[in-house]
């Protein structure tokens, strides 16, 4: 046995060649060339795309991946990198690869987008060459709740991220998802799926006011509204080529966006109501009761000094160009309207809150502008902490006879502290009694929390506006600044009682979120809207006279007979308001008569906008009245239009008409 083993060893040694140094060098060189080819490390620069500063964040991850040679380690680290990038990618990316290599100069990178992305915030990311050595295809993924119906699903319709265990059923055999062309991966391709940035917008609204039977419910009560944010949001959506979400359309805010020349008050009363009763453009069998309220014109030369606290959201969600950058430009415009004795302070909030500018007189313009220019976006949104500090700063600035205001500028994304609108209502209501009111300016889209902004403004006795352009900033912060900051009446409520002998049915157009109980009208403890200097407020009822063919509700068998058959009045108008600082309200009241008032261009144009808003919400009560009818009437009623607002509205109607087809 021992001899046999020795003979076997001798044979092996004889068959084994002697070491060859030259051959060893050649083999090593060949291995290095093969490694360089498969790893993408040739001397030529590899084409790449970097769309923004965030792309630098991926360099470390790509360098780490490029030096790994073990496929198992590579798969694991690729998965880790994909998970880490989910938090920062502004839109979904899909990266697909197959094992067959291609020469480096034949590599192709193609891209498909489902939505517009800001150039500064967009991130370009490619799977490193250590993971793939062939075409890289980047494409969007539509999440399952928004996928168009699929046809003939095949074996490749399930996508799994390497090592992540994430699947997506959104592929079809045609390679189409939501109208976008995608490359459908084969079973042996690996795909990295990164989660998209979700649209988290939330709007404050309610169902359209129903048609009321006058004999059953003759009284309508609501708080006035001078906010205008809904119109700007509608414009923002239409200019992006999209119909606005129905909940974003508050008809009264669209109507009140426009200035109207209603008759001004002639006595010490802060405003004057004007009532007209005219035919309805969209329904021959009904009439419109138009209520226009004109606030007293501001006395600019007599206004007291202003103490303004700019509460600015600098969280990460504010980095887009239509948010913090536009905000800075907007406040620059506002500073030009301040007087030297006015004071400005700046408080910011992100993960926490801080004062970045102590109270500074408006004469020190460069100091204020420098503080604005230094602001940068980043972090979470500690809205509660920001509000608390802003009110503390405002309280320290209060002097007798001066006006102190907090102006909050945000996209409304409160995610740290008080984020529930009801909780915010309580907090703000506790602060408004001190005389420091809160106005809210909204910026940007995508995570606009309109519900929170409305809760803040309505309970802070301030105004809510949405700024999507520099022109809108000028309208709100320059042209209408006095009305925003100097109220002439608080807790303004309207109540209309209709005569069932004359009016069979009625409905209030808009004001769904401003409805009050009947008993709230005379209760001075119930908060309501405020009117600023020079403001106009419009409310419109559609009413159906008794005997009209347009009556929708049939008579009740046991209904009570009307008790006002001897009166020509179709209704009775009441308005309650408080002068600033007063605890008790005052009453204004007028009868409403058939055919009273004149049909002016202002009245007609307000009808157009009321109809436009109803069309955007579905047009439940408009019959066959269309965008074309609205456009035709708007052109007739446009009038002089010195600021171009009405011409712009007609453009928006045309866009909506096209998008609705």
Q: What Rg, in angstroms, do the CA atoms define?
A: 33 Å
Summing up helix and strand content along with how strands pair, one would put the structural category as alpha+beta
Please give the largest β-sheet. Answer: 6 strands, mixed
How far apart the termini lie comes to 95 Å
Considering the chains and any ligands shown, give keywords for the structure:
single chain, 661 residues, alpha+beta, Rossmann fold, 3 domains, five-stranded antiparallel β-sheet
How would you portray this structure in words?
The structure is a single chain. The protein contains 16 helices and 24 strands. It is globular. It has a six-stranded mixed β-sheet with strand order 15-14-13-16-17-18, sandwiched between helices. Strands 9-20-22-12-11 form a five-stranded antiparallel β-sheet. It is an alpha+beta fold. Strand 17 (437-443), helix 11 and strand 18 form a beta-alpha-beta unit. Helix content is 28%, strand content 22%. Helix 10 (421-432) packs parallel to helix 11 and helix 14 packs parallel to helix 16. The chain has three domains: 38-194, no CATH class; 244-294 and 487-554 and 562-659, Immunoglobulin-like (Sandwich), CATH 2.60.40; 300-484, von Willebrand factor, type A domain (Rossmann fold, 3-Layer(aba) Sandwich).
Reconstruct the topology from this structure.
Blueprint: H1 2-15, H2 21-39, H3 59-66, H4 71-86, E1 93-97, E2 109-111, E3 136-139, E4 159-160, E5 167-168, E6 176-177, E7 180-181, E8 190-194, E9 212-213, E10 219-223, H5 229-239, H6 251-255, E11 271-280, E12 283-295, E13 306-313, H7 324-335, E14 343-349, E15 353-361, H8 365-373, H9 383-397, E16 403-410, H10 421-432, E17 437-443, H11 450-459, E18 464-467, H12 470-479, H13 481-485, E19 487-498, E20 503-508, E21 529-532, E22 536-545, E23 571-578, E24 586-592, H14 601-616, H15 627-637, H16 645-659
Parallel strand pairs: 2-3, 13-14, 13-16, 16-17, 17-18
Antiparallel strand pairs: 1-3, 1-8, 4-5, 6-7, 9-20, 10-19, 11-12, 12-22, 14-15, 19-21, 19-23, 20-22, 23-24
Helix pairs in contact: 7-12, 10-11, 14-15, 14-16, 15-16
